């Protein structure tokens, strides 16, 4: 036992040797559990971004240290602590899950460091819990479903059934749709997250309720499972399925392998698609496909953006990353090449941007992917910005 | 509420019960006969899904994959029993829990290394896709009907095996009094190994059969495992009949709770309170059921005759 | 008492000295992060010690012990949510609530034995778990952040100071070990052990074992509730996940890993379990591949857990 402790101490000592780079960025995502498919996409995108900037921001060398949240808020918080207190990173980014972000945010913010969410956009962080050192580079949770509600109105849908997981992002998504959808919500099921994978009871209820459309939100590997059961229940031909964050480059190959043709043509709303026409996006998508042999997901796009976002600020302060005021000012300006074209930062440090209609299509080589359509919400700001009392 | 929905939800509950039964049958035998708390039974559920799925993809036929999975899981079960678990029989339940938990971690990680984090999706053949009309306005997914059918067949087969064959007689003898059965000249080690192999096949079948619906993922067996433990405790440990009845009961109550509890609560609570209390109470239902049954029948519904040794 | 200096006791002393020294040792080694790690480990150790009181000595394997962690934790979080941050309110509520819940659960559970006891404790804990999941006002699945740690109303004892926080946890751990030691050595402890090996016989000599076991069950619940109180304060965060059955399982694992029916085993178990996961997970994300077989090997080759390996044979001292 004594030997073991000494051995442990030796291992601890050798793994925590200080890194050599000038700037250290902590990146928290999911690297284990089935949800690691998302984490892998994000990490791949970050690595690609680092290659593209030659591991440099201005004169400084950059290193990214990854933390695994194990798909669990408590573990995510501990991973954040490890990055902030042990690895002493300069700023922290990443975060897929809203609940992980909410639990972890105080660790970073109390240490007086910058926190940039590359995916999660829970409502408290946009409103009453907004913070001068917190930025979001993706979207606020309510926005994409608000766009979807608008799309449903445009499609003339009168009655809607809603299914989503019962955690903060799921609640935000449902709230978002209900905000903009003008028809009637005839049924709503909030299911146990993340364990529930069989929706037989909910599907039977949908069938009995007979809505004109169904709205669903299941991120990660749960989405394809839901759609498959939706199809097996014979609903996909009769009740159109509208979704957010479900059909992406992670799930579409699975649908294609399983031969679920009815997915083609499915409509959703999103701030980005792989075929958006701008220089940064063309380079990102082409090189990502080249390097990893698959399309990047929106998770990847946001992670790629986050590195360039940080780079723009580091260059604005000439590498003096301790200059928090200068960093914040630069981040608020958000002058960096984004894969989504242009957007600006709102006063609550969440993006103001367009949301587009997006559909599932087959590309020239026969791969299933998504394609961008007309704008549904233009220069849209989240509904919580007004609750944020931060000095602009 | 209309009767079509009611019947459909009953079928849904029954189908969940079937999956639970396939898991619980092996678990209850292994526990009842060998007195082994095998948490790794959940891993067998997962391994069945991945191995069966891989076989299905390799042979391009789901049915063939499922058939080939049976001998594969039998061998895997026997290997697991002889290599790792055999030495645990004489240990305390706590030691067994610790060791088999270690096995769960190992199998989960090994599965992730082999098949990747994205898991496995198994396409169904065309004749299993879509829905079938069951009459009286009820349509139901073909595949779920097949699950129910397969489960009933297995239950029948297991009943015949346990109740009508010499092997079954030995199994029953082992379940009610292991020491006595051994003293009467039953080759206990061989019996144990065979029973474990059968349990592995049943768990693997449960895992494979649910995969076209839920997909195969690492750790998929753990929540099912807990439910299966609930089932065998309600049913009475060592009793296959008890496991069947308890599994169906659990499946139906769980599904009915998820479907109708919020409506029932609406009768006594304001709308928003019912909306938030409904799902929680629905999730609790089976545990309330178990606590209630154990409170009144501390040995479950169908304890095997003379099963005092289990304590 | 010829060999007072056994390896098991050496390890006990070493672990305690290490725990006491961490707040000074870690910054000196430029590893301040390990202060939090050890504080967290000690909280788990308190919970494991409390579980072992009923499991190791009373034969009551509770698979729902993490429920009390949650009850203690939510007492802090919910009162804090309503701006009641005084420890003089939070602490009695945490302890009182744990005691009441343990009393009710105990009355229901203690009718059963063996696996049935394991499962009924699981069932009751799952009910508390789903109750917290459904508490939308208090964050449901996402849990609650705690803005201020419990306030004892004096600047000489301020939990916001991380050193004070750390030594509070350390003191509670020592206190729980002391209480457990006194219980185990007493007539009460003897009845508990005797009833776990043959309840009928103990009842036959006229001892109302049910009452003894119930009292032990409540004491264990209160100790674990106290651990929950500390955990909420340390982490400044609670969520239903604190009382998920995985956590109850981990508590059992830590205890068995360290050695049941030894006073100090659960502490060693918590240290080994959590330090090993901390270290292995930094080396590779596939650390379960090593950790799993390690647990199997402990069972196969170290009867009585780590303490058993060190020669402590189910002693009650």
Number of domains of chain C: 1
Relative helix content of chain C: over 70%
Spatial strand arrangement across the major sheet of chain C: 1-2
What's the N-to-C terminus distance of chain B?
A: 45 Å
Structural class of chain B comes to mainly alpha
Strand content of chain C: under 5%
N-C termini distance of chain C: 11 Å
The structure class of chain C reads: mainly alpha
Mean pLDDT of chain B: 89
The rough form of chain B would be described as: globular
Task: Walk across the major sheet of chain B and give the strand order.
Answer: 1-2
Strand content of chain B: under 5%
Which chain pair has the greatest contact? Answer: B-C, 48 and 43 residues
**Strand segment count of chain C:** 2
The total of helices of chain B stands at: 11
Number of helices of chain C: 13
Task: Give helix and strand order of chain C, one letter per element, not per position.
Answer: HHHHHEHHHHEHHHH
Count of individual beta strands of chain B: 2
Helix content estimate of chain B: over 70%
